[in-house]
Amino acid sequence: MRGWWREISGLVLPVSCGGCGRERTELCEACGAQVYGGVPRRVRPSPEPPGLPVVHAAAGYEGAVRAVLLAHKERGALGLARALGTALAEAVRAGAGRAQDGRPLLLVPVPSARRAVAARGHDPARRIALAAAAHLRRTGVPVTVTAVLRQRRAVADQSGLTAAERRANLAGALDVAAGGGRLLTAGRVVLVDDLLTTGATLAEAVRALDMALEGAGAGTTVRHAAVVAASPLAFDAACPVDREINRNWN
After folding, report:
1. Is 58 exposed, middle or buried (0-12, 13-18, 19+ CB in 10 A)?
2. Sequence-distant (≥ 6) Cβ neighbours of residue 1 within 8 angstroms
């Protein structure tokens, strides 16, 4: 109900840019360029957690990108999902490319905690994944969203935790819904999320997905992940010369 109200109110109430606050536009051209106008990169957090797949990110988590992600996730600016989905789609394309043998890409979003979904009124990663899939289909890529991951236990708030503490906090926290393993064999799995910081969440998600694939008798593992944004250190490490360029956007 809350999600529907936010979408309807966005049509009738004054809007401002989710990146810079400029009035009368949900996302201005300059901020949109920061979100989805760059070249996605392979990113690696340091230290890199065991089990982390190849991850591509569309942008660094700073400036307008950070503001837009927070506006969508925490302030209910649901219309921004399309721009964020475009960014995620390009990160997916950079890493996984097109499906092979006519099979679709399967975008598997990392789930938010149930209490977070209840508080926000929506699941940000799933909404962005659906927007990314729509964008990829418009460009001829066969793709579907396969939301089979579930939180099997509560986890502590991740903010303020070190990389090692995050890994311990998330260990065994995710699993795949009953029957999900069979669904995962229908195409090439690409794990997707809105943000990469330490990589602990993606590594835990890969563990759960690989177990489900093994249980379904599949001989493949999850090799690719894509995110809208990565921490500035992880993103800039892929191309340090762009650090000054990124700063000029702020």
Report:
1. buried
2. 121
Contact 201, 51 (CB under 8 A): no
- The token pair that represents 87 in the structure block: 């960014």
Residue 6: closest CA among 64, 73, 66: 73
HSE (side-chain half, CA atoms, 13 Å) at 229: 20
The whole-angstrom separation of Cα 4 and Cα 113 is 20
pTM, whole model, 2 decimals? 0.85
- Angle at which helix 81-96 crosses helix 63-74, to 10 degrees, equals 120
Q: Which of 90, 85, 81 is nearest to 40 (CA)?
A: 90
Contacts of 229 (CB under 8 A, 6+ apart): 57, 58, 59, 60, 61, 65, 66, 69, 87, 194, 195, 196, 235
What is the C-alpha to C-alpha distance for residues 78 and 81, in angstroms, rounded to an integer? 6
Tens of pLDDT, residue by residue over 178-205, are 999 999 999 999 999 999 999 999 999 9
pLDDT of residue 167: 67
Burial bucket for residue 217 (CB in 10 Å: 0-12, 13-18, 19+)? exposed
